[in-house]
Amino acid sequence: MKRKYYTLLICLAGIALLTACDGEKMKRKFHAAAKVVAEHKNSAGSGKEDGEEAEKQEGGTKSGAFVDPSITPAQNKALDRENPWFARDFRMELTAQTMGGKVNVEIQKSGKVLYYHFWNNSGNAEMLILLDEGEYKLYQISTKNKVAQLTGTSDLDYYTFFCNRIGGAYGIVHTARKEDNKKAKQDDTIIRTETQESVNVEDERWGGFDCEKITRVTETESDLGVGMKALGGLLGNKGDMDGVMKDMKKIKQTYITWIDKASGAVVHRYYKMDGGTGMGTFAEQMQPQPSVALLTFSPDPSLIPTSLEGYKLVQ
Questions:
Q1: pTM of the model
Q2: Where are the alpha helices (DSSP H) in 137-259?
Q3: Dist CA 314 CA 149 (whole Å)
Q4: For residue range 38-62, what is the model confidence (pLDDT) as tens digits?
Q5: How far is CA 27 from the centre of its chain?
Q6: Using alpha carbons only, how large is the chain's radius of gyration in Å?
Q7: DSSP 308
Q8: How far from each other are the two terminal CA atoms of the chain, in whole angstroms?
Q9: Which residue among 124, 296, 311, 313 is buried most deeply as judged by most CB within 10 Å?
Q10: Element at 35 (helix H, strand E)
């Protein structure tokens, strides 16, 4: 279970170069740094190939793909592609943190119509998706002005379409992630890392929902390898690179997911990163973190337009 961090190395080298030199001097140092990276990569090449071949022979997986010892009942419902909760008529109301901002969301499916409305202080958008057989048609509508504009079509299956367009963006659908509680350790010429992951599942009520709460904690500790230290000395700013790596040395990520037992819908998420300096705040902002206020499978069709009747089609 090895990871190669050559991309990270290049990024760190770039940061160091920006602070250390410019012009022709930068070019010379960059070429020298690239040569060091290439030498270390080539020296580790045969080991990498052997390791990958061994993984194939043993039926193993690459680092980051963990194997689940079991799937819990709520997760089983959440991962049901044949009969997902969002294939039934439903109405969901939620708030979500995504892309650094908070947004209010309404989603309702009634028959062959899927209505999707989101808004915040910056504005709002209403979408009406006609789920006829074959191609789905996506319209941006205004219930206030009674106009509709065709924005696209899709021939994806409904499960994939919903997850890609709505569910994944707001984190309300559960995606299987394999797990392995074993300690993964690597010591190569670039960066030495050690990762420990733990998973805990318990029953807990949240927001009126009877949930299965899944808590996943991943702790990663990294340190400079021989090649990284040599690179820092070559660039002439080893102290700066040591400072960057010190901030990145220990990172702890906590993922908590609440899955409604009755439906399999994700009704709440929490994510926190400790360490990584400013990366932690950025990572937290980019993670979809929904809080569902309402989920009913007996929606009122009068709350949404059920067709384009009465709407003016515009270009």
A1: 0.71
A2: 158-162, 168-170, 226-235, 238-247
A3: 5
A4: 554 454 444 434 434 333 333 333 3
A5: 36
A6: 25
A7: S
A8: 53
A9: 311
A10: helix 23-43
